[in-house]
Amino acid sequence: MMSIINYDINKKYIFLYNLTQAEFYFSKGITPLKVGKGTKGDTFVQFANSNEVQNAFDEWCNRWRPMV
Asked: What angle (nearest 5°) sits at the alpha carbon of residue 41, between those of residues 35 and 43?
């Protein structure tokens, strides 16, 4: 499945500020490294970059697309 958004596999960490998206990753069994507050006071969830995270990202991006 190809994502509609570019994904940088070279990054060491992924930071999510969308808590609904983070919950989606949790539902896929992906464990976060850290939960914290950004410089603007917004909550983030940090994940180690991996194929598992990339697959979850692809699923997240394509979750509303009809299955062909």
From this structure: 30
Tell me the C-alpha distance between 13 and 30, whole Å. 13
The span from the CA of 31 to the CA of 28, in Å, is 9
- Confidence band (pLDDT; 50, 70, 90) for 68? low
- Other Cβ atoms within 10 Å of 39 Cβ, number: 5
Amino acid at the residue 51 = N
Beta strands in 1-68 (DSSP E): 13-16, 34-37, 43-48
pLDDT at 6: 53
pLDDT for 9 beyond 60: yes
